[in-house]
Write a structure and sequence with these properties.
Distance between the termini: 30 Å
Order of helices and strands: EEHHHEEEHEHEE
Number of helices: 5
Largest sheet: 8 strands, mixed
CATH architecture of one domain: 3-Layer(aba) Sandwich
Bound molecules: coenzyme A
Number of strands: 8
Structural class: alpha+beta
Length: about 200
């Protein structure tokens, strides 16, 4: 876990806290093993044991932050998803935003956008001082791409036939958000509540 991982990051709708393997792994596994989600994760471990090793490596890494997304609307934090910052590269001032997953029953409420915006704000702040964040999304994943674009990410490259989804090879898009283009104040409208299902 990155030495500068904060104990908590507060967004408008959600709070991000460092992933706790002992108490949160079952929740995390239910997110990543969901068939509709797994097909869009690209490379992903296939068994619980592989996922545990994969997570251990990432949570121990000095250049990664794995966070649980909590909804605190009723006082008690309730986990609703996960989000990570990987490959944090202080020298080059960049990191990868990855594994943004919200539980299916909580989608369409703005949680992913708020979690992304909150983590990006932290990454661009004096704490990490990054200058850009990138994210990769597979072509058929309209919701994944849409939520990144809603935070201000722009597609800057496309890797043709990069990953397999089912029996097809699909393109992967690389989206980038630069610190200078990030405008947290325009991202959130508290009146807006939708119920779109992903
Ligand atoms: C992608 C995902 C994280 C979005 O979570 P969410 O909480 O439902 O997203 P939000 O409610 O914050 O939506 C933010 C924006 O994303 C876009 N979006 C969300 N769901 C969408 C959908 N089904 N189709 C198209 N665009 C969508 C919209 O632009 C939306 O803004 P709007 O409400 O103003 O129109 C969620 O669908 C998910 O967990 N999918 C499976 C995992 C995944 O594919 N993760 C990304 C790759 S790692």
């Amino acid at each position: 876990m990155h030495e500068k991982t904060p104990p908590q990051l507060r967004g408008h709708l959600v709070t991000l806290r460092p992933f706790q393997k002992l108490t949160e792994f079952d929740f995390y596994w239910s997110l990543v093993s969901h068939p509709e989600t797994r097909r869009y994760l690209g490379f992903a471990p296939h068994t619980i044991l592989e996922e545990l090793h994969f997570l251990d490596a990432r949570t121990a890494a000095a250049n990664a932050m794995v966070m649980t997304v909590n909804n605190c609307a009723d006082g008690e934090p309730k986990p609703v998803g996960t989000i990570s910052l990987d490959n944090i590269d202080i020298v080059n001032g960049r990191a990868e935003l990855s594994r943004i997953i919200i539980v299916p029953e909580c989608r369409g409420k703005g949680y992913a956008r708020d979690a992304c915006a909150t983590l990006c704000q932290y990454a661009f702040s004096a704490s990490l001082k990054l200058r850009l964040i990138y994210a990769c999304v597979l072509d058929p994943n309209q919701a994944g791409r849409g939520q990144l674009e809603s935070v201000g990410f722009n597609c800057r490259a496309t890797l043709p036939e990069w990953d397999r989804v089912g029996s097809l090879y699909v393109d992967e898009h690389v989206l980038i958000l630069r610190r200078d283009d990030f405008d947290a104040s325009r991202l959130f409208n508290p009146q807006k509540q939708k119920n779109r299902t992903a």
